[in-house]
Amino acid sequence: MKQLSWKSNIKHAKLEYLIKELDPTQDLSRGGITNRAIVAANDMTKAMSKEEKGNWWEKVAKKIPELNNFKIELSVPTAMQVKLDDENEEIFEVISENIKKALGLEVLQTQYEIQILWMNYYSWLKEKAIKVGSEKEEDITGPEMVKRLVQILLLNRESDVEIIEEIKTALLQWEE
Q1: pTM over 0.70
Q2: Which of helix, strand or coil describes residue 71?
Q3: How far is the C-alpha of 125 from the C-alpha of 143, rounded, in Å?
Q4: pLDDT tens-digit series, residues 127-161
């Protein structure tokens, strides 16, 4: 079981916060997040050519400065560490090599590597959240559902009373 340690900064704290907002899994530890980020990165890039992988990791790395636009007060731990699952160690090494080649680096610092890996995972989670319910043609996306729910509630028409009651029931069941 490989352990990674790095000096953290505000970008790590912001990414961790953003991932925890979107990640539907129970294990929101840094290790859990990192291991899922490795699996997601592997799934996303395994069918890509070397050139496509290079372009992919370049795009992900260029998204990191966007974190500066996200304003929130967070405490930043001095250092962070994670333990990789045994099955993810080899995958992590391959991903590291791909990132180094893509960015033309001789050495890839763990601090930067985790930022890229977490940014990739966050982008994947965000895309997945936006696509909620849009797998079938007749389904709608998450944002479209919210838009329709707000419209139903604001219009408050007599004909929508039954639908509003069904929504309330579904929300109460979900909360249990």
Answers
A1: yes
A2: coil
A3: 15
A4: 887 776 555 556 677 777 788 888 887 777 777 78
